[in-house]
Design a protein that fits this description.
Elements lengths: L5 E12 L10 E16 L4 E6 L4 E6 L5 H5 L12 H11 L8 H17 L8 E7 L9 H17 L12 E2 L3 H19 L5 H8 L2 E5 L2 E5 L5 E7 L6 H14 L1 H26 L4 H21 L5 H11 L4 E5 L6 E6 L5 H13 L3 E7 L5 E3 L6 H8 L9
Parallel strand pairs: 3-5
Antiparallel strand pairs: 1-2, 1-13, 2-5, 2-7, 3-4, 6-13, 7-8, 9-11, 9-12, 10-11
Helix pairs in contact: 2-3, 3-4, 3-5, 4-5, 4-6, 5-6, 7-8, 8-9
Amino acid sequence: MTNKTLIVSAPGKVILHGEHAVVHGKVALAVSLNLKTYLRIQPGSDEQVRLYLPNIDTHLSWKTTNLQFLLTAIDADVQNPKAASKELVEQLRQYVGISEGYADTMSLSILCFLYLYGAISSSNSQLPSVDIVVWSEIPIGAGLGSSAAYCVCLAAALLTASGAITCPALQRNDIAKWNDDELELINKWAFQGEKVIHGNPSGVDNAVGTWGGMLRYHAGKIDPLSRIPNLRILLTNTKVLRSTKTLVAGVKDKLNKLPSIMKPVLDSIDAISCECERILNAIASGGDVNELYTILEELIDINQHHLNVIGVGHSSLDKLCQVTAAYGLHSKLTGAGGGGCGLTLLRPDANPSVVEASKRALKDLGYDCWETNIGGSGVSLQSPSSLQKDIFHLLCEGETANEEF
């Protein structure tokens, strides 16, 4: 176990195009979101493992002696991650005292942590005493990859602390990156954490959190895209709860009932994703920005209409689109739809007063709204001086754990 304090960050994600169509074999574009999860890990001195999750008001600690069962219960090879068995997850559930049929964020976060901590630590045949704080800017349960960013941060921090991967040297900007082989190992372990939380995830969210930038997802294959420009967006959370499972089932039902109508719509969404990829490459290559952004706006408008056609729209999202359209901006839902979040594209020369007026109008509807970027870097090691003051305070001056197992 390293004697250093480490700070790790990983981004959330948005689906730019291809949501729902991807379930039916079409292309989807997922892109990193400049809202991040941050984790601080430092060695403990009292044979305790402490986990503090201020976003969900969770403060926990365990004695390392009480966690020794993890070394025998988890058959793990740190270089070759594999999924936690149902029997192991059940054993962890009973140990922590989580009710059967759990699905709340706190329970899933604890189970994921214990599995990754035990599995990665088992390579050294001992359980280290550590203090971990995780804080996130990413809204929880909004389809923005918050759980994947949590898993990526845990995997990167635990692998680095255990010596399974190197601790990269900080660069001039006080941020460091792991090499490609180490990122691949981080991604594989984060995927195992996502399995504990979601059961059968696609792997897209943790891949975006690890690699950053934009990924092309098609028929189970994930390909990072190079030469993708950073884009400015408004990200809006309507705060309308929805069931992804129900929405996915509704699209499938329509497809089964009306295949001659629905298949062309899904084909068109696929074409939008491919055209968007081409346009982004053209922007990165120095093409006419004004003309290319006009095409991006048209693709957003067309896709939003398609998503309404396949039945995943919502009145809250219609209002979002109407409000931003009144300011000359173009918006679409991102993720499952039925409420949830939407994104609004901002041109590089967007008038700041127009952007602010649009944000105020959206907040007046009761929505949360952020101006942010997409397409930035993935998981990173950061120095304390690279953090904003409020994030530094939450990570480095927060409370300690107060509930012991």
